[in-house]
Design goal:
The complex is a heterodimer of chains A (498) and B (365). Chain A has 498 residues and is of the alpha+beta class. Chain A contains 18 helices and twelve strands. Helices cover 47% and strands 12% of the residues of chain A. Chain A is elongated. Classes of the chains: A alpha+beta (498), B mainly alpha (365).
């Protein structure tokens, strides 16, 4: 297969520019698109000369091709078949491009553009009349809010770009395009606001993506990995959103957004832990509610991380800390349990993970089966059989629920397994072990950087002026400055003159 | 990736949080035994000694702001003497690191994990400390910045909650007949802990230049000294001299007296856990400075590799003492106070005086 592929490449290379004769052009194009039956080659004639149209069926609006290209040319009184003349006087499509390089022409065809050749020039016109099947704009699934916009990104990149362009209308909003993937030729747009975003970060993003060498960009993972500074870290270093207003807000903070064709999410860098813990609703609600729900999220982040470990540590090593009456209760419920607390927690956590995973994989109609099995087998039977104690079930349930509180899915799946090693340490060394676990995680977070921005900024390195949007959510009228951690070019959010 | 830059705020939190706990835990009983209820005067003297050390160290570094210490000391004291002194300093840090590890092991095993072998306890924290140290001083600084405030809360809240148990009468009579000599002798223990601000010699040029830097550094040593003063005073006020001087960790006992709503009691495990933060940062900083320093003298081993070597040596050294008496009583009396403390105080003083005289001579010429 490789030889055939190489052969095609060499063939294209040998015809860097197509000949002017239509007959030869047709022959070459037929050779290039051998066995590609979805490519339409349509020769037609005006009164004086011959033309050739080429497009991918299904990517173009064939009715429009006929209406605006073929028919006008056939009926024109203009004699000369020169392409600029055709564009300006005959056909009535506005988005056009004149191409000469064969590779460019092939790319344009793959993008869903319609290419017109004449009999006298070695050039071609590309008409942009793409129209392909796409989903309509729907409410975001993974990032829903009660109050706020109901628009979500879809798989079509042009729609996604327009959704953001509609929010930020200034020409300073730059969208620079790039094609990645040897085979997929996926188009990618790097978007930023000139005069706000740090140019160094923009250049850095471009450089990292240019270096990326993959066959195809079918998922966001290859792009995400290219953007990460530390590939071995479990923590996400890219933020995803399917909400245009979140992306717009990020751009206004001086961050860079990356649009990928075919993926209904937009990637944003640089990222800090605290941006991953914010939800769009923090800013649509009143500031007190926003602050309280933010605190709730921080608290339950800690619970998701530490609750089972703390329970194990205290139960195994520091029973004296528990008030006597409570201790007696727990002791009573654990009387018949054959396992040490660590093993008990491990079993429960693993079962919980299994249920969670099964819930995602099962078809929707079967979902209730999982919940019934989960409730009956785990909730009832395990306790009655004396395998697991009731307090442990509670702890594991609370832990599981807490991890769902986090807005970024990529972060909450990290919290699925990070507690396990900490649990092990607590089972070995009690609260000391727990603390060591916390210290390792904290050290790791402190060592992470995303495009030069510390992962824990603005907590460490401390920037007290930015903590007002981290520890609390101050009313918007007090947020006059952009976060200086991303860029310091244009620090004021307000127009100075007004 | 080397990430060795500190901000001045990180410098403040780092020095404050690494000094405060070890000092509070280990030195009050000795100090109280010698100086009786005037131990708080000893604390004041210890603060004074540490401030002198800090200021002379800063003077030395600020004179050559962009140089590493091993270059500075060779410029001032000549190649061979300078090299010798600097290696002595690094060796003293390594020894103190080992002692610290052992003291941590004894403390944890004596309070919360009686059945776990000390070597395991030491090994676990050492491995944990290698991670941030390997990544660089910046990571340690950020850790200090995050945990510093939590640590402060963990120190002040037991004192505030324990106020009901205190009685000022225990502090009287003022100027007991132990005499000025006893007060000074009593100050040597805490001074040995507070003067480890001499570590700044090695990391001053790694922190960002800022006009507030020296002010923040002074405040961090001062705060840590004042917290020590507060703890000694509250220990005496709670127990009186007799009981306080017989406990190994009187500050921990102070905290055991706390009861919230009559329901939340025996908080020592949590408090100890918070205190571990401080000891952890101290271990990290010592490990960083020793590995950074020694790597300057070896061409083959870079700083990051050196971390593992130093950690191995310190682990080995920490297992040598036979018991808690060796490490907490013998070592300070035989090595700590007579050798390491004077070396730490006199070295920066000597260097800054030399600079002062040299500059004077240069000016007159």
């Amino acid at each position: 297969m490789k030889t055939a592929d190489l052969h095609l490449k060499e063939f294209i290379k040998s015809y860097e520019f197509l000949p002017s004769s239509l007959e030869e052009k047709t022959k070459i194009l037929k050779e290039i698109y051998k066995n590609c039956d979805d490519i339409v080659l349509h020769p037609f004639f005006s009164k004086q000369s011959a033309y050739l149209l080429i497009f991918v069926s299904g990517l173009c609006d064939e009715e429009k091709i006929h209406e605006h290209i073929v028919r006008p040319i056939q009926h024109t009184s203009i004699v000369s078949p020169e392409l600029p003349l055709i564009i300006s006087h005959v056909t009535n499509i506005t988005n056009t491009k004149i191409l000469s390089n064969t590779l460019e022409i092939i790319d344009e065809i793959a993008d869903g553009n319609t290419i017109l050749f004449n009999d006298i020039e070695n050039k071609a016109v590309s008409y942009r009349i793409t129209s392909y099947e796409k989903r309509s704009i729907e409410e975001p699934q993974a990032e829903s809010v009660v109050i706020g916009s109901r628009e979500g990104f879809i798989e079509s990149i042009s729609t996604n770009l327009s959704l953001v362009r509609r929010k930020i209308k200034t020409p300073s909003l730059k969208m620079s395009s790039m094609v990645i993937g040897t085979y997929s030729h996926t188009s990618i747009y790097i978007s930023y606001i000139e005069g706000i975003a740090s140019l160094q970060i923009v250049e850095d993003v471009k450089e990292k993506l240019t270096k990326l060498n993959v066959d195809a960009v079918l998922s966001n993972a290859s792009i995400e990995e290219a953007l990460e500074d530390n590939w071995s870290s479990p923590f996400p270093q890219v933020q995803y959103s399917e909400r245009p207003e979140v992306v717009a807000a990020a751009l206004l903070e001086g961050r860079v957004a990356i649009f990928i064709d075919g993926i209904p999410f937009v990637l944003m860098v640089p990222v800090t832990l605290f941006t991953l813990l914010q939800t769009p609703e923090d800013y649509t609600e009143r500031f007190i509610n926003g602050t309280l729900s933010r605190w709730l999220r921080y608290f339950f982040l800690m619970v998701a991380l530490l609750a089972p470990s703390a329970y194990i540590a205290i139960l195994t090593f520091h029973q004296e800390m528990i008030p006597t009456t409570l201790l007696l209760r727990i002791a009573q419920s654990r009387e018949e349990i054959p396992f040490p607390a660590f093993l008990e927690a491990l079993i429960m956590q693993v079962i919980f993970e299994v249920l969670r995973e099964a819930g995602i994989r099962l078809p929707k109609q079967m979902g209730s089966t999982v919940s019934i099995v989960g409730t009956l087998v785990i909730g009832q039977a395990a306790i009655q059989a004396g395998l697991v104690s009731a307090p442990m079930v509670m702890i594991v349930a609370i832990t599981g629920i807490s991890s769902f509180l986090l807005p970024q899915y990529t972060l909450s799946i990290v919290l699925r397994w990070i507690p396990f090693p900490v649990m092990f340490l607590s089972g070995m060394l009690g609260l000391v072990g727990l603390m060591l676990g916390v210290l390792i995680i904290a050290s790791h977070l402190c060592s992470l950087r995303s495009f030069g921005v510390s992962y824990l900024a603005p907590l460490a390195p401390n920037d007290s002026s930015l903590l007002k949007d981290v520890l609390i959510r101050v009313p918007l009228k007090f947020m006059k400055k952009r976060p200086s951690i991303y860029s310091s070019i244009n620090p004021n959010r307000r127009n100075e003159g007004k | 990736m080397n990430d060795n830059v500190l901000t001045y705020k990180q410098l403040f939190w780092l020095f404050l949080s690494m000094q405060v706990i070890m000092n509070m835990l280990l030195t009050p009983s000795g100090s109280i035994m010698i100086a009786q209820q005037d131990a708080w005067l000893s604390a004041l003297i210890a603060i004074l000694i540490s401030l002198v050390t800090l200021w002379s160290s800063i003077k030395v570094c600020a004179r050559y702001p962009s140089m590493d210490f091993h270059v500075i000391i060779e410029t001032i004291a000549g190649k061979w003497i300078g090299r010798l002194l600097s290696i002595f300093l690094l060796v003293s840090f390594t020894v103190v690191l080992a002692v610290m590890l052992r003291q941590y092991g004894e403390f944890v095993s004596g309070t919360v994990l009686p059945k776990t072998p000390i070597s395991v306890i030491i090994f676990c924290i050492l491995v944990t400390a290698i991670y941030p140290t390997f990544h660089g001083l910046g990571v340690i600084g950020r850790l200090a910045e995050i945990f510093g405030p939590i640590l402060l809360l963990g120190i002040i809240s037991p004192i505030i909650l324990g106020i009901v148990n205190m009685d000022v009468k225990h502090l009287l009579p003022f100027w007991y007949d132990s005499g000025i000599l006893a007060i000074i002798t009593g100050s040597l223990g805490p001074a040995a802990f507070l003067t480890d601000c001499v570590l700044i010699l090695w990391i001053f040029n790694l922190s960002e230049f800022h006009p507030n830097k020296i002010k923040y550094l002074t405040w961090s040593i001062l705060t840590s000294g004042l917290l020590y003063l507060l703890s000694v005073t509250s220990i005496i006020a709670t127990f009186g001299v007799k009981i306080a001087s017989t406990h190994l960790y009187p500050f921990l006992i102070l905290e055991r007296y706390i009861s919230i709503f009559g329901m939340i009691e025996n908080l020592d495990a949590i408090v100890i856990t918070v205190w571990i933060l401080s000891i952890f940062l101290k271990i990290c900083l010592y490990l960083f400075v020793t590995s950074y320093g020694f790597s300057m003298y070896t061409a083959k081993i870079n700083r990051q590799k050196m971390v593992f070597y130093i950690a191995g040596i310190a682990f080995f050294l920490s297992l040598l003492p036979r018991n808690v008496v060796d490490i907490s009583i013998e070592f300070p009396q035989v090595v700590g106070v007579p050798f390491i403390l004077p070396f730490w105080v006199i070295l920066p003083l000597f260097l800054s005086l030399t600079i002062f005289i040299k500059d004077k001579i240069n000016k007159t010429q």
